[in-house]
Here is the input.
Amino acid sequence: MRKPGDIVVGLGFLAIGIAFAISSIKLKIGVPTEPQPGFFPFFDGIILIVLSVLFLIQAWRGRGGESPAFGNVGAPFIIVLTLVLYVATLETLGYIITTAVLAAAVLRVMETKLRVLVPVSLILAVVSYLLFDRLLGVTLPRGLMAAFL
Amino acid sequence: MGFFENLAGGFVVALSASNLFYCALGAILGTAIGVLPGLGPPATIALLLPVTFRMEPVSAVIMLAGIFYGAMYGGSTTSILLNIPGEAASVVTCLDGYKMARNGQAGKALGISAIGSFIAGTLGVLGVSVMAPTLASFALKFGPPEYCCLVFLGLMMAIYLSEESVLKGLMMGVLGLLLGTVGLDPVDGTPRFTMGFNRLMDGVDFVVMAMGLFGIAEILCNLETPENREVFKTALKGLLPTLQDWRLCWASVLRGSILGFFIGVLPGGGAIISSFAAYAVEKRLSRHPERFGRGAIEGVAAPEAANNAASTSSFIPLLTLGIPGNASIAMIFVALMIHGIRPGPLLLQEHPNLFWGVIASMYIGNALLLALNLPLINFWVRMLKVPYRYLAVVVVVVCVIGAYSVNNSAWDVGMMVFFGIFGYLLRKFAFPASPFILAMILGPMLEKTLQQSLIASGGNFMTFLNRPISAALLLAAGLLMLTPLVKAIWKKQKKSV
Here is the structure.
């Protein structure tokens, strides 16, 4: 049995190894008596290439240990998407609004009822803002709410 | 100064009001996250790293260490009552602990694991306080070639001892070394692999990466499976083991402690392996091995002692050689670096207060944990009834705030999310995260000592073999790398017979 998942992963590692090895050549490798900045990463890159090829051969032959099965991947996918949006909007919309949405998304995928979800995420966003920004001195972005805070 | 004077000095540091507070806080937090499944010690320590920015370095390490060994106390509770390990080092405790609970001996199982943990933890600290200074003074003689080989051996041990798949461990190790080179070159300051991002000049931020790799990734993984927890309902009484129980398991506790201590010193050894090894030893030595798996008290006492002794002794390579052996200790390494303290053989000379203060706090912490654990057992059990989703949402919010607070920028939150996704994929494809993080931390040291050795010897790689200590270290690494081959040949021969 070939393992398509492992083959993709192996190719990923291979690509990283090649990328580092090539960029290291540009940084100059030097000689052992006078190693240049590319010296250490170049050899690491070469080792990673060799290991990735070994891994790809294993995956092609269907060897190697079992990976845990994917469960319900929908939930992590939604949260990853929410987190990406969170990073993109954090500084414009401000901490409180974005965090309330993020918290709501996490609670939602874990099957929380709406009447619990709404107050909990709002309270969490506001309380954590007050605790960290006001009490502990972490400056959190105010964004749209700047006028009120 | 003699040993007792040093230790007394440590107690003066550890007994100050604020350090006592941080010690207790760490121990309690550790127990809590040990009890709760779905949040391990490395994730918790990573989450709290930003909090330690403004603390005294001693207080920071005292608190983080408390979390680490405190989790070993808490983990058994969930194993015994739920048949779910509260954290990874308590997996094996499920076997007999849960059976004991089903046989109406939950109290006894909880009692023996707390007392066994205390004995092992205390013996472990004693071992650390005796062994660490000796090892540190020995390591002072190390030059760059010795250090280079030592780091290499440490990384190889972390990979070969702890992982199922050596190939995956090696790939992650090399990836960590490569990622460790991102930023300014340590020798001549050339920017490397920054891809034009100024933010990457200082390299990848450990704190941000760790919060993603451990915190966010852990939550993402746990989102896949719906929570299913059933606390075993039973009257918790008779927590103190009887004289007869003691007769059965005092030797197990002692053996577990000693075995755990020595496994814990090795990089990659750590609490998880030591608990499995201790269980296997007890089963083999027992006159009634059939009792194991059916509620044998030794099967709880030995692994719980072993994981505590191991978690304590894993501080030895950190404090004396500057080599973290597992992910939690790596986080404590990062906490020290944030404060500009370089763990290693000089730590004892340069920061004796920190060194002895942390060790003294471990004696105190273990006593506190014993005092807190048994009387509060009902409180910990009740905490298990809080649904996981509330823990998950708080962890996500704390991660976001923590990452933002590092530089007050959304860039770091983005990096954290990136490493969260990366860590999630690693778990899904069964790639180990700890060789990656250890290699990333140790990579710069490996590179620097390698270059120094080569320059000093005129580019001669034989320099590593011409010096006795470095040759011995390299030989050990070489033997270690041969083990999979030997195992494979042995298996084949067994088949053909």
